[in-house]
Automatic annotation (TrEMBL):
The lineage of its organism: Bacteria, Pseudomonadati, Pseudomonadota, Betaproteobacteria, Burkholderiales. It catalyses: Release of an N-terminal amino acid, Xaa-|-Yaa- from a peptide, amide or arylamide. Xaa is preferably Ala, but may be most amino acids including Pro (slow action). When a terminal hydrophobic residue is followed by a prolyl residue, the two may be released as an intact Xaa-Pro dipeptide. Gene3D superfamilies: 2.60.40.1840, 3.30.2010.30, Neutral Protease Domain 2 (1.10.390.10), Peptidase M1, alanyl aminopeptidase, C-terminal domain (1.25.50.10), tricorn interacting facor f3 domain (2.60.40.1730). Residues 230-450 form the Peptidase M1 membrane alanine aminopeptidase domain. This is Aminopeptidase N. InterPro entries: Aminopeptidase_N-like_N (IPR045357), Aminopeptidase_N-like_N_sf (IPR042097), PepN_Ig-like_sf (IPR038438), Peptidase_M1 (IPR001930), Peptidase_M1_dom (IPR014782), Peptidase_M1_pepN (IPR012779), Peptidase_M1_pepN_C (IPR024601), Peptidase_M1_pepN_C_sf (IPR037144). Residues 120-190 form the Aminopeptidase N-like N-terminal domain. Belongs to the peptidase M1 family. It is an enzyme of class 3 (hydrolase). It comes from Trinickia fusca. Residues 455-563 form the Peptidase M1 alanyl aminopeptidase Ig-like fold domain. Its cofactor is Zn(2+). Aminopeptidase N is involved in the degradation of intracellular peptides generated by protein breakdown during normal growth as well as in response to nutrient starvation.
Length: 896
């Protein structure tokens, strides 16, 4: 199959065990950028459970075959072809040695072995190892690896690979070598090597059992001062996994390496985790509070993969969420514990809110589009396209539901049984589900549908109060509404939905809950198990008609349909004891008003906002009993992208007009309050990335952002300039620059240009900071006489811009196309023409990155007719010119 041909569809139902197994792999690398020689010696045997008599089919891409030897003797019965190597006439057990060559310096895909900033790196998940050597490159083939690296010592003084360093030494001609052994079986996607001029921060710690471990964070020399936070995050991750799940680090050392050219966030290769610099480098001058939090979360995520992904891995790529959904859940719990421990629910809720915001904005949209698929997909053309929000974030919600059903202790019992049964194996999502079920004595057959059904479920709620009988009935109905065709095709029956709720009395206090048939009340939050298409749950001894608090802590990834009044939402916003639902009430209230404003804007009608809505937001803004972090989240309006998802036919210009009107109305009506909050939460002293300090900065900078919306933003410009000049951290400096860019929409470009120029001069040698500089300009509002696509076009020609670096491409092109909808969806179609040009250009360099950008138009059918037509034209242009499987799958599904 060539990349230009119609690619075959790979189906889960067609899974077959490999015909051969590999027990051990000895790899020898002679590292030269232009032509690296790889000697691969494997011990293979026929799989007794595989197809009998099969020839050996090894995967290989972009390789030059040099030689093949069977048991040390040249073997002529082989054939190299476009996608691999066929070897015939083989005994039942044998040693196969293959010598091949690759060209790391020419590898712009950043998959396999490649060169970045003069150093060697690898990225093998999902199918990059086949670009390094011919191999059974599939996750269910696990082997022990020994790796020998040889290279010029002056150019590549550091030589790293998986596992433990067992030998190193000098070679003739100024070269040297290092030999690494990984004692644990692993699939090829977990292989890694790094070679180059790097330095490390080191720590030695003792594990819970008393064993000494060496921890290293490797970076380029000029970045060493930005590694302390990553190291601290790694130590915290190790300690947390020991305490929460009883899991220790199993190798003598654990290494993190940062690289600036990387398609993903990071990669959990066994013992040698390779990271995008974005998720390692952080100090106060160059990283925001969000960056610090992301570093902690991603370091945790990749470390936790050591057990949930490495020690137990996937049988096939359809089971990707087995490791990713589970590990996202683990990193979410880790971050929540770092923020609020296991007792401060209000602090933990801040993390929960952030996660659900991302899920609803991006994963719910994915569920409604042409790329909709179950958590465990049934088919794919290119596996790289299925590293999705559904697999990761919805997969994490599925795992969270086990904990909601069984509690922390029950979930831990299930995890313990999972490790006991499957350590060292490649398994399936069903194996995980059965371990949780057996450990808790439950039949979870119905729960399997969460893995096999696509789409976002909806739960409609009806309530009825019988004052004479003091009974309150809650009827839950589950359905999918108007979902994508792919979702309709996968539905086989009702789900098991854990639905947490509480009841709130007129005094704002929670009502003790006793279900019909129970002898006494038990708590004020109950998890109802919705297993039928419709079920009624009746609470007794309810003294007065309560207000329901529905789906507390977002106990399942569903949309709740209940017709609250504005007054009821305001009441919940003021009184709900569940922090998540308190935030949710404000978001519902804002969404309702914004959608009404959008309809009026689309019809060119006057816009107005009820004073009661302003009053509800004012109460949150001025309520000092609420944490600053929570108030900041509660006062951020739903995004334009999220609002568009709530409409049958999206009108980006009207959505933007409505949201900007509401922001300006809140800014104007509460101007004095915003100024007071800004002053109250401005702190002096050294920067601290603690949750408390982060919350104060977040609320202060939100106040500054609202003040920048005023018709006369003189206060915002004064405060932003002062903050920019005095800032001792990137959070405040970037927020000040963003406020100046917003104020410049009404005050003129001169309000922001000096700070923009100064920002670049200060940080031109800090790539991650310059990424922020590009992104802020791509996401600014613009106006009729200043289109942001023109700004982006000029920035494309900037000497610091390059398409070859994924971070830089994402900072400018993705920021414009995915995070500036009002400008991207210009009525003249200029945004779509720009998108098409960039997808085609990226496809020739890096298909994985191109495919991510291609998804910006997958929901094109949901826009107004004029926009739909221009989007279709852009999609067809891309479909006619791109060659990779990655992009073709996305655009062909969008057009189908």
């Amino acid at each position: 199959m060539s990349d230009t041909a119609s690619p075959a569809v790979i189906r889960r139902a067609d899974y077959a065990q490999p015909a051969f197994l590999i027990d051990s792999v000895a790899l020898e690398f002679d590292l030269v950028p232009e032509r690296t020689i790889v000697k691969n010696t494997m011990r293979l045997r026929r799989n007794p459970d595989g197809a009998p008599g099969a020839r050996l089919e090894l995967m290989g891409e972009a390789l030059e075959l040099v030689s093949v030897a069977l048991n040390g003797v040249p073997h002529a019965e082989h054939r190299a072809h476009e996608h691999g190597l066929t070897v015939e006439n083989l005994p039942d057990a044998f040693e196969l040695t293959i010598v091949s060559a690759c060209q790391p310096a020419e590898n712009t895909t950043l998959s396999g072995l490649y060169v970045s900033s003069g150093n060697f790196f690898t990225q093998c998940e999902a199918e990059g190892f086949r670009r390094i050597t011919y191999f059974l490159d599939r996750p269910d083939v696990m082997a022990i690896y020994t790796v020998t690296l040889r290279a010029d010592k002056a150019a590549y003084p550091v030589l790293l690979s998986n596992g433990n360093l067992v030998e190193e030494g000098e070679l003739p001609d100024g070269r040297h070598f290092a030999k690494w052994e990984d004692p644990f079986k692993k699939p090829s996607y977990l292989f890694a090597l790094v070679a180059g001029k790097l330095v490390a921060i080191e720590e030695r710690i003792r594990s819970g059992s008393g064993k000494e471990k060496l921890l290293q964070v490797w970076v380029e020399p000029h970045d060493l001062d930005k590694t302390r936070h990553a190291m601290d995050s790694l130590i915290n991750s190790i300690r947390w996994d020991e305490a929460r799940f009883g899991l220790e680090l199993d190798l003598d050392r654990f290494m993190i390496v940062a690289v600036s050219d990387f398609n993903m966030g990071a990669m959990e290769n066994k013992g040698l985790n390779i990271f995008n610099t974005k998720y390692v480098l952080a100090n106060p001058e160059t990283a925001t509070d969000t960056d610090f939090a992301n570093v902690e979360a991603v370091v945790g995520h990749e470390y936790f993969h050591n057990w949930t992904g490495n020690r137990i891995t996937c049988r096939d790529w359809f089971q990707l969420s087995l490791k990713e959904g589970l590990t996202v859940f683990r990193d979410q719990e880790f971050s929540a514990d770092m923020q609020g421990g296991d007792t401060d629910e209000a602090a933990r809720a801040v993390k929960r809110i952030e996660d659900v915001r991302a899920l609803r904005q991006f994963q719910f949209a994915e569920d409604a589009g042409p790329m909709a698929h179950p958590v465990r997909p049934e088919s794919y053309v290119e596996i790289n396209n299925f590293y999705t929000m559904t697999v990761y974030e919805k997969g994490a919600e599925v795992v969270r539901m086990y904990q909601t059903l069984f509690g922390r202790d029950g979930f831990r019992r299930g995890m313990d049984l999972y490790f006991k049964r499957h350590d060292g194996q490649a398994v399936t999502c069903d194996d995980f589900r059965l371990a949780l079920a057996d450990a808790n004595g439950r039949d979870l057959t119905q729960f399997e549908r969460w893995y096999s059904q696509a789409g976002t479920p909806r739960v409609s709620v009806r309530t009825a109060y019988d004052s004479a009988q003091r009974r309150y009935a809650v009827t839950l109905t589950q359905h999918y509404g108007d979902c994508a065709p792919a979702a309709r095709e996968t539905q086989t029956g009702p789900l098991l939905i854990p639905f947490a709720l509480g009841l709130i009395g007129r005094d704002g206090r929670d009502v003790p809950l006793r279900l019909e048939g129970e002898t006494q009340a038990a708590g004020t939050t109950r998890v109802l198990e919705l297993t039928e298409a419709e079920q009624t749950f009746t609470f007794v001894d309810v003294a007065e008609a309560p207000l329901p608090s529905l789906l507390r802590n977002f106990s399942a990834p569903v949309v709740v349909e209940y017709d609250y009044t504005n007054d009821e939402l305001a009441f919940l916003l003021a009184h709900d004891s569940d922090p998540f639902n308190r935030w949710e009430a404000g978001q519902r209230l804002a969404t309702r008003e914004l959608l009404a404003l959008t309809a009026r804007a689309a019809a060119s009608e006057p816009l107005s906002l009820d004073d009661s809505v302003v009053a509800a937001f004012a109460r949150v803004l001025t309520d000092e009993s609420l944490s600053p972090a929570f108030r900041e989240l509660a006062l951020i309006l739903p995004s334009e992208a999220y609002l568009a998802e709530q409409m049958a036919e999206s009108n980006p210009a009207a959505v933007h007009a409505a949201r900007q009107f509401m922001r300006k109305r809140l800014a104007t009506a509460l101007r004095a309050e915003w100024l007071a909050v800004y002053e109250r939460h401005t702190a002096s002293g050294p920067y601290e990335p603690t949750p408390k300090a982060t919350g104060h900065r977040a609320l202060k900078n939100l106040a500054l952002a609202y003040l920048a919306e005023l018709d006369d933003p003189v206060d915002a410009i004064r405060l932003a300039n002062a903050q920019y000049d005095a800032a001792n951290n990137m959070t405040d400096r970037a927020a000040a620059l963003a406020a100046l860019l917003a104020a410049a929409t009404t005050a003129g470009a001169a309000a922001a240009q000096p700070a923009l120029d100064d920002f670049y001069r200060r940080f031109e040698n800090e790539p991650l900071v310059i990424d922020k500089w590009f992104a802020m300009q791509a996401m600014q509002r613009g106006s009729l006489d200043r289109r942001i696509i023109d700004v982006v076009g000029k920035l494309m020609a900037h000497p610091a811009f390059t398409l070859r670096n994924p971070n830089r491409a994402r900072s400018l092109i993705f920021s414009f196309c995915t995070h500036n909808p009002a400008q991207f969806h210009a009525e003249d179609g200029s945004g779509y023409a720009f998108w098409a040009e960039q997808v085609i250009a990226l496809d020739a360099l890096n298909p994985q990155v191109a495919a991510r950008l291609a998804r910006s138009l997958e929901l094109w059918r949901r826009y107004t007719p004029a926009l739909r037509e221009r989007m279709r034209e852009a999609l067809e242009r891309v479909a006619s010119q791109v060659k990779s499987r990655d992009v073709r799958e996305v655009v062909e599904k969008a057009l189908a």
